[in-house]
Design a protein that fits this description.
single chain, alpha/beta, Translation Initiation Factor Eif1, seven-stranded parallel β-sheet, 20 helices, 20 strands
């Protein structure tokens, strides 16, 4: 008989024979996307897989318990499970609502936010899939107010530390002082709960993490896998752990690791539902396919991906098209690029020179946190500003309600990056109820050959269609 028993708050243990253990090892293993191109695969014995079940210790992440049970039941294995692993906390939606009312919040949480909070309390752990502009920080605030003891909130960037603190102050009407910004670990003690980046803490010893009763990972999909596992494996006694993400990249391995560390995925709502309810801006997507002359298409036929990118970002005609598009748009516009020196700086210079009577901001990785926050604050008061920003800085978490237009100046097929970037424009305000995304792609097709970035555009179209966004396609000839 197979036995599923507690191991600690990170793992469960499966007591079984070697044969079943090897089956579980294989069942809960996944190839890392792109592993064939990794030096570790090319030059070491690594087979390109992540193994989530330790066949020697017979352990697997606690958050994968439901997947383990599904595997046993599908294959007609007889098993027993320790009751403590399936116990849930008792709280009704009515009680959850009453608790929220007791906090004297400046605005009532939406039903789906109360549902998510209730799910968190009942299950002690979960991976919340909550789209951009759905109010993830509000749900996180409710959780931190419910649990006593120290809370560790982990975010991917320093900019989100300040934003989280600002959000909490707003929710508490300025009275909540429970969070400190990146408070340093001194003498083995932290006096308060903290919000920090994963980069600042993942190398710290277990005794640091032993101080926390609750761990919350915001924008969890951005954490490096090794760093995330290091943090949560070093927290074997932390019972309450919750991950939040707006998007998952579609890779099974990625989802299973996050579920294993935080808990089973729980979808709070969808972007389409938020739009239908008027909680986020109505999104219109204009996909602009730039078509190049035969001479250029023939010259780039079968070009490598990087050569194609180099041509795209250096093309004066393309950059002028982006400049003219940006200057023609009314309202606050966010223009996103990928490479700073080769592309972002060029776009900034040519747009700034012609943007008369409009404020133009340039934000990238080296822009310090205070300056980014200042840009965010200023733009909220503007009606016709232009922000030229790198994907890495502005595609995740940064909240500006007054963005009317978003332009993708650099091609990408990343589901996470695209949906997170779209989210920058979905916040609503008293003067804004819709947003337009201008997705620029490049057509270098030659005979039967389809260029790399055009394939990426096709992938983005599939992503937008799956989200049920409103899409229009435009072909524009670059002469």
């Amino acid at each position: 008989m197979i036995e599923i028993v507690p191991y600690n708050e990170t793992y469960i243990q499966i007591k079984t024979d070697k044969g079943v253990a090897m089956e579980l090892k294989e069942e809960f293993s996944f190839f890392v996307p792109g592993y064939r191109h990794m030096p570790k695969y090319k030059f070491t014995p690594w087979d390109g897989k992540i193994y989530l079940f330790n066949a020697h210790k017979r352990t697997i992440y606690k958050g994968l318990l439901s997947h383990v049970i599904d595997y046993f039941e599908t294959n007609d294995y007889q098993y027993t499970i320790d009751e403590s692993l399936i116990e849930t906390e008792e709280i009704s939606l009515f009680e959850a609502g009453k608790f929220c009312q007791s906090l004297d919040l400046p605005m009532d949480p939406y039903d789906y936010q109360v549902d998510a909070f209730c799910h968190a309390v009942r299950n002690n752990r979960a991976l919340f899939l909550s789209p951009t502009s759905s109010g993830k920080s509000y749900i996180i605030y409710l959780i931190t107010r419910f649990y006593e003891g120290r809370k560790l909130i982990i975010v991917p960037t320093k900019g989100l530390i300040k934003q989280m603190h600002t959000d909490f102050q707003q929710y508490s009407k300025g009275t909540y002082e429970g969070l400190d910004h990146e408070k340093k670990w001194k003498d083995g003690v932290i006096s308060d709960s903290i919000v920090t980046t994963w980069q600042s803490i993942y190398k710290l010893p277990q005794e640091f993490f032993d101080q926390f009763d609750v761990i919350i990972g915001d924008e969890a999909h951005h954490f490096q896998a090794n760093s995330l596992t290091s943090i949560l494996e070093n927290s074997p006694n932390c019972k309450y752990r919750f991950g939040f993400t707006g998007t998952l990249d579609g890779a099974k391995a990625h989802k299973m690791v996050l579920e294993g560390l935080f808990g089973k995925v729980y979808q709070t709502t969808t972007t389409k539902e938020l739009m239908e309810d008027g909680k986020v801006a109505e999104l219109y997507i204009k996909m602009i396919n730039l078509k190049y002359p035969d001479k250029i298409r023939q010259a780039l036929a079968k070009a490598k991906y990087q050569d194609e990118i180099n041509y795209i970002i250096s093309s004066k005609k393309r950059n002028n098209f982006i400049k003219n598009l940006t200057l023609s748009l009314k309202g606050n516009t966010l223009l996103l690029f990928q490479r700073v020196e080769d592309h972002g700086e060029k776009l900034y210079e040519i747009i700034k020179d012609e943007a008369t009577n409009r404020k133009v901001f340039f934000v990238y990785g080296k822009t310090n946190v205070d300056a980014r926050e200042e840009v965010r604050t200023v733009v909220e008061q503007e009606k016709d500003a232009i922000i030229i920003a790198s994907y890495g800085v502005f595609s995740t978490g940064i909240s500006i309600k007054s963005i009317n237009n978003v332009i993708f100046a650099s091609p990408s097929k990343s589901r996470i990056r695209n949906l997170q970037s779209i989210g920058r424009g979905l916040r609503i305000s008293e003067t804004k109820t819709k947003c337009t995304l201008y997705d620029i792609s490049d057509d270098f097709k030659w005979k039967t050959w389809i260029n790399h970035t055009l394939k990426h555009m096709q992938e983005r179209f599939k992503i937008y269609s799956s989200e049920k966004f409103k899409i229009k396609l435009y072909n524009v000839k670059l002469k």
